[in-house]
Amino acid sequence: MPTQNKIKEEGKFKYQESGEGEVLLLMHGLFGGLSNFEHLTTFFQKKMKVVLPLLPIFELPRKEATIGNLLKYTEEFIEHKGYDKFHILGNSLGGHISLLYTLNHPEKISSLILTGSSGLYESAFGSGFPRRGSYEYIKDKTEETFYNPKTATKELVDEVFETVNNIDKAMRVITTAKSAIRHNIEDRLDQIKTPTLLIWGIHDTVTPFEVGKTFNQHIKDSKLVPFDKSGHAPMMEEPERFNEALDVFLDKLK
To answer: Does 143 map to a domain?
Structure first.
């Protein structure tokens, strides 16, 4: 079973940290909790320092819950921790932030790993942001983001249900999602020279597989690995295969 790591707090920063060695920084998405990376953390903490900052989507003033401010928070967190050279991995909105950080600070990034990343085209939640509604409706919409609907555990569905039925949280999610959609970076992708791994679910309904192919076309030093039994979160749906693909990629960089 995956291990649970305690959340550390240092000033305004909250994060998980485990293992020793090279830093692998994990960036979660808009609806992505820490549990999304449990299997990955369990595997890589044996050989690297795995760090997962909690993005303050629900702590920032509502109008400031933008991708620009989340990027600034990430930059401040990295400076606070003193990371000089590290690997960055992002899913969904976290991938978007990882891309922007890499563009702004290429000298700090050893490699970039994207899975279901926004930045080109994304649907806020499959076919649309889920309206406030019945638990079953939210359950169905959450399941649609995965190839295997059983990946949407009760814990995950409960979290999404609570978010979309909380006016303040729902407005923050919408503000952040709209900010990400406005922040299209296709015209900057050719500036990325960092070794890049793209792991993409063929059945992704949020950031379709065509998005991964476009990233691959524009990022010169990139490799696209399609996952045929995954939707928007391959590290959750095919964790062993995900860890193996990432492990092979990182080993080749040594």
So the answer is: yes
One-letter amino acid identity for 230? S
Q: Domain of residue 67: give its range.
A: 8-252
Per residue in 210-246, pLDDT (tens digit) is 999 999 999 999 999 999 999 999 999 999 999 999 9
Contact in structure between 111 and 91 (CB atoms under 8 Å):
no
CB 77 within 8 A of CB 50: no
For residues 89 and 112, what is the distance between their CA atoms, to the nearest angstrom? 6
CATH number at residue 57: 3.40.50.1820
Is residue 2 included in any domain, yes or no? no
What is the domain count for the chain? 1
Angle at 86 between CA 80 and CA 92, to 5 degrees: 90
- 3 state DSSP class of 147: coil
Closest C-alpha among 141, 146, 92 to residue 120: 92
